Amino acid sequence: MHAEHIDMDRLIAGLESKSEKIRELGRHGVPTAEIARYLDIRYQHARNVLKEAGLHKVAKAAPESPAASPKPYAWVELNADGSLTIPAELLTAAGIEPGLPVHVRRIDDGIEVFSQQAALARAQAIAAPYRRQGVSEVDEFIAERRREAAREDRGE
Predict the structure, then answer these.
(1) How far apart are CA 118 and CA 145, in angstroms?
(2) How many domains in the chain?
(3) Which of 14, 76, 86, 141 is the most interior residue, by most CB within 10 Å?
(4) Residues 69, 146: one domain?
(5) What is the phi/psi pair of residue 27, to 5°?
(6) Taking the model in full, what pTM does it have?
(7) Torsion sign over Cα 51, 17, 15, 40
(8) Do 48 and 77 have their domain in common?
């Protein structure tokens, strides 16, 4: 279903947050770029909300056969300015889209490049063992900062 056939004003009527509006439009098949234009927000914002909700769809051609699947590696030439041209099929397979930021870091035996979504997933996996069920670390941090400010105000 294309955006021109949908009354987007009606779909999002009564929804307060941009994220709610993005998800509702995404559930009705409105393309990410169209949502961003309609709500006057960055494409990346709409994409992140839709991805988190499992609603972001990237059009990918299905391989015709296992032999048609991209190789998990490629030999590429390093340009004089230090840039690389990475084959599109590798970027697509890694969930990296043109124009979006990527995380690049040095590792012991090379360089690693991964999508912002992959970086977030790695950070969440690192933090997961330290999370406490039903506890908002953000709320605890804010409360602690307020207690500290109150102590400073009392001269303690």
Answers:
(1) 31
(2) 2
(3) 86
(4) yes
(5) -60, -25
(6) 0.43
(7) negative
(8) no
Q: Two tokens at 39? A: 């709500």
Q: Where do the H-state alpha helices sit in 40-87? A: 43-52
Find out whether 26 and 56 touch, Cβ atoms under 8 Å. yes
Reading the chain (156 residues) residue by residue, the pLDDT tens digits are 444 457 888 888 999 899 999 998 888 888 888 888 899 998 888 888 998 888 877 655 445 555 555 677 888 898 899 988 888 888 888 888 888 889 898 989 989 898 888 888 888 888 888 888 888 888 999 999 999 999 999 998
Please give the Cα distance from 68 to 64 (Å, whole number): 6
Domain with 36 in it? 3-52
In a domain, 57, yes or no: no
Domain match, 36 and 94 both? no
Residues 6+ apart with CB under 8 A from 61: none
Domain identity same for 84 and 106: yes
* Burial class of residue 22 in the structure, from the number of CB atoms within 10 Å of its CB (0-12 exposed, 13-18 middle, 19+ buried): buried
Mark whether 97 and 146 lie in a shared domain.
yes
